[in-house]
Amino acid sequence: MARSQTVPRRGANRAQEGVRNLRLKLLALAGLCLLPALGAAQMAISGQSWIPLAVYPLASLVSLLLYWQDKQQARTQAWRTPEKVLHASELCGGWPGALVAQQLFRHKTRKVSYQATFWGIVMLHQAFWVDHWLLDGRWLGGAFGFLTGN
């Protein structure tokens, strides 16, 4: 008599697994946060503005909580948080918290269109800090000079 094999459901043991490749993901997060953190710290130290130094952690916490709430709503099939709200929180500086939340809650990681927008927002932040910190505002300052009349 042959033994019947049970096939585990996809994702059945995910709660027990934790975050896969944790060290690599933490290293990637640290690398992505390095330029914004250095730029925000430099702005605060030079007296330009302390706002970015405060906004990134606060917006990240808001993003993380929004992702947590949306994941809970998805599980209970309740009214979901609109993607544009999640993206707005990322754009306001909460992308580090959103990245952590995506991994912790395994939420919004497979939807390609969502991930494309998310990574575009991350790259926009990186480009801003490259311009501000390394190029002294010459690139984006020139591109948006029409707004200031320059």
Notable traits:
150 residues, mainly alpha, 7 helices
Q: Which overall shape is indicated by the principal axes computed on the Cα atoms?
A: elongated
Poorly predicted tracts of residues: 11-16, 144-150
Structural class: mainly alpha
Mean pLDDT: 83
Number of strands: 0
Measured by DSSP, the beta-strand proportion falls in under 5%
Order of helices and strands: HHHHHHH
User: Describe the biggest sheet?
Assistant: none
Gyration radius from CA atoms, angstroms: 20 Å
Helix content: over 70%
Number of helices: 7
Overview of this protein structure:
With 150 residues, this protein is an all-alpha fold. The protein has a domain at 50-140. The chain has seven helices and no strands. The protein has helices at 14-17, 22-45, 51-75, 83-105, 112-134, 138-143, 145-148. Helix 2 (22-45) runs parallel beside helix 5 and helix 3 packs across helix 4 (83-105).
